[in-house]
Design a protein that fits this description.
mainly alpha, 4 helices, about 50% helix, about 5% strand
Length: about 140
């Protein structure tokens, strides 16, 4: 048999002598990185051949400005609701249904302020991301403003 079965960038290593595919190539521990080379014996025709591993990457991207705007609006609304609740407690006191529950007021306050701080950090990160997109000109190209 001639060496006309030599292969180029196939899904599985293919014996250039007989065309048999090694579908269990991942079991060869030596093949772990781009450019890895390994000489193997074909399990079908028993002839030696060399495998050269190639790794490639593919990426997907999409425009995110509309989603970012929605995230900012959601975080702003959440922060406003939290502020409204705090103001209601300041002016009206603790709601009756909470007074009747066996709740540690200190823990309740800590949870509230952690939620406010977390939402505020999220909002600041979203503002920073929007600002970076605006400075790079990407925001206007997609947002149309």
């Amino acid at each position: 048999m001639t060496s006309d079965i030599d292969t180029w960038q196939t899904d599985n290593p293919t014996c250039p002598w007989c065309g048999a595919q090694d579908k269990n190539w991942w079991e060869h521990r030596e093949l772990q990185s781009d450019g890895s080379e390994l000489t193997v014996t074909c399990g079908f025709c028993a002839k030696d051949y060399t495998i050269l591993m190639h790794i490639s990457y593919a990426f997907d991207t999409w425009k995110r400005q509309e989603t970012l705007t929605e995230e900012i609006e959601r975080a702003e609304k959440k922060l406003a609701r939290l502020d409204e609740r705090l103001e209601a407690v300041r002016t009206k006191g603790v709601p009756k249904h909470l007074q009747d529950m066996d709740i540690d007021a200190g823990q309740l306050a800590r949870d509230y302020f952690q939620d406010v701080a977390r939402t505020d950090r999220e909002l600041q990160n979203l503002y920073r991301e929007r600002s970076q997109l605006q400075e790079s000109g990407q925001w206007e190209a997609i947002d149309g403003n």
